[in-house]
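ok so i was messing around last nite and threw this chain in just to see what happens. nothing serious, just curious
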Amino acid sequence: MDTDLRSALTRVISGDVIAIATLLDVPHQRVAADTDGISLTVRRESVARVLRNLAQQEITGSQAQQWASFVRYGHVPQPDSHEPIKPVRIGYEADYEGAIADVISRLDEIGDLIDGEVPDAAEISALLALLGLPGLS
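result:
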């Protein structure tokens, strides 16, 4: 596997939203092929990192949504590609799987016509609490 690609995937899984840009330049088939046999697990701290960065306006709602979509579905949409999609297998930390899935689902809704608003500080605190973490101070 390409070291830069592995590094980008590791950073994305750890909540580094900006690292998704590296994946946009790589054909999906290569990402999927290079990740076969690799365990990728999103932990609650990774999700919390995205939430806190969103609250501090270090990332945009669109960036948070793109990250959530990738860790939810296992691929970055590439509209110009006509190749079949084989999702990258991404798991969630077992003890917090349901909470992680709920928060990722909420972040993936950003930009939708219904319920698509960027979460405010109160909602972000509630999402952090869902993950069993302290809210924003």
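not much to say yet. Residues 61-73 form the longest helix (13 residues).
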